[in-house]
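Supplementary Note 2. Why include the ligand at all?

Several targets in our set were suspected to adopt different conformations when bound, so apo predictions alone were not considered sufficient. For every target with a known small-molecule partner we therefore ran a joint prediction. The input for flavin-adenine dinucleotide is given below.
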Amino acid sequence: MFYDIAVIGAGVFGAWSAYQLSLTGASVLLIDAYGPGNSRASSGGESRVIRLGYGPDEIYSRSAQRSFTLWQQLFEKTEPLFQKTGVLWLARDHDPYCEATLATLQRLNASFERLDEDELRRRFPQLDPGPTRWAILEPDSGVLMARRAVQAVVAQAKLNGVEYLAGAVAPPQGKAMRMLSGAEIKAGRFVFACGPWLPKLFPELLGELIYVTRQEVIFVGVPPGDESFNRGAMPVWIDFNDLVYGLPNVDGRGFKIAIDAHGAEFDPDRGERVVSVEGLKAVREYLVHRAPRLANAPVLETRVCQYENTSNGDFLIDRHPQFENVWIAGGGSGHGFKHGPVVGEYVARMIAGDGVEERRFTLKTKERVQERKVY
Ligand SMILES: Cc1cc2nc3c(=O)[nH]c(=O)nc-3n(C[C@H](O)[C@H](O)[C@H](O)COP(=O)(O)OP(=O)(O)OC[C@H]3O[C@@H](n4cnc5c(N)ncnc54)[C@H](O)[C@@H]3O)c2cc1C
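The joint prediction is reproduced in token form.
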């Protein structure tokens, strides 16, 4: 069968691209090597934060706002896979990032509260503010149930006529695209939404433009009968001054904490997903100061995932410079999940020829140095 478009990769970017393309009436084939939201994928795992704050990068605040609406519309058709927890930004005295976030939230007419230190202590006594002097609360933001949400997008895409194929696509070597098995994929255009695998598929083009880093996530157990770390009592909190964030105890899985600083280089196919002694130590040390009641809490669960970073954290969504019919959508850079719906919309419009190019997503803006600016 010949398809208008083949989307390779059913992570959050590919799943939403296939879904949005199907709404244009195109015939779409969606292919994944390991399955939608699989445990190797960057979109795997239980939960992802959706928030509007992006410091000075209003482009991503707007995208998150639009994506939030599209996620909600999707969940009306599937099951509710968003949990409203609120998102709390912990700010220092002089904090350009949080000040810029505050200004953007005002401009976007988003709901938010500015809390001074006393109010923060009163409302969230589970957290020790430490050097935090004030905070921003986004009351309507929260948590997307990641793996299940990706699977829900794929299920909806299938209802719209998208065909799903399990299998691995070989690195492109010319105009004809093939599965690793050798079978040809017959399609007019191809969207490679392969997250951390993109440098393997396009080593010459992307080998130095996307670097894949190992990231550890740890869930610790809350004290028995203590509901103060649960969703409802405790929001998601983000401390980008220390590059740490955490999620409340959602669905009884424990208090989730992760260091956002980039880890070592990582291979998404073969990398062992066991957290390091150093990673556990860093989390424990942080808990002692930030959530002292959890300082000795037992580890319930751990995960190793990966970020697929561009030099500054901007997405990479552009046409392949050598192959007219090939598009690349990736570079989620540790913050991409929430934006899946808008990424899909952008891909569908660009392919239909009626999109407006966003310079920050283009290949020509991508550098080879690691200089993270977008969080
Ligand atoms: C620990 C962690 C925490 C994060 N927290 C947040 C957060 O709170 N909020 C947020 O918005 N974002 C967050 N992110 C970032 C976000 O999860 C990613 O940016 C996003 O999931 C990337 O999606 P993707 O579709 O580009 O890639 P992926 O999800 O990796 O999907 C790529 C898919 O391509 C498939 N594939 C690869 N090669 C082939 C091939 N040759 N043939 C066929 N299929 C192939 C893979 O199997 C995979 O399913 C986090 C990421 C991590 C790792």
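The chain has a mean pLDDT of 97. Residues 8-14, 31-34, 38, 41-43, 48-49, 168-169, 193-197, 201, 215, 217, 258, 305-307, 330, 332, 334-338 surround flavin-adenine dinucleotide (CB under 6 Å). Comparable summaries for the other entries are listed in the accompanying table.
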